[in-house]
Amino acid sequence: VFAREPGRGNPLAVVLDAADLDGDTMQAIAAWLNLSETTFVLPPTQAGADCRVRIFTPRQELSFAGHPSVGTAHAVLEAGWARQHDHLLVMECAAGALPISIEGDGAERRIAVQAPPAEIGETELTLAVALAKALRATVRQTPSPRPVKVGPWWLVAELDDEDAVRALEPDMARVIELSRETDAVGIAAYARCESPGYAIVVRCFAPVDGIPEDPVTGSGNACIAAFLRANGLLPEGDASYRASQGREVGRDGSLDMTVTADGRTLIGGHAVTCIDGTIRL
User: Is 37 labeled as catalytic in the residue annotation?
Assistant: First the structure.
């Protein structure tokens, strides 16, 4: 997901026809596959939804996540489990029924999911100090780091420049400790930049969930987008930009982020199928 060719972006397993699986079995499959997320497709329960999805990390179920939503939409369209209507697919998840826009077909298909409304927590000096220790890097005080929730909570912190983000070598034990203290899934670190092809560079660390570094993270990027808007760092009205993430773990990917004038956040990108098979239980 968030790539045009195999071996890049963020891997996702999508289990179709999962109506007969209970939550414990889904969690066991996700732990066995050991990807950052695995999704399970079920019939919808809400009127107007085209399909329902449950999202699991190796450790827990999530109410929403961006790359699983985009990747599951790709899989259900490709497999014929759901059909778009007027370039739209409505996917039900624990966070609600989310509209997913579809542009193009086949390898050129671009999918964008509307994230749940963001919740932005308060900033504290102690959080900035703890983040700096966990990341082993200087964290900017303007804008001050904050917890942001778009599905899961992420601790969002801006660094000085692209080189600082790409050079990060966090203290994973401190990241785990801080994540548990704040009930966050991890740290989303970013920097604004002027590199060709993208406007920000992002890295997301979630070792508390068994994911030391998540390659290309929809919910983390949605939290950063909400953080940028809340701090007046995006143009007024509709604002769009491209984010680069995953290069440091050999999974170079990109996300097209849009924050609308009325506060909606869209997470967009491409996806490609790498493996098609059957799980025997």
Answer: yes
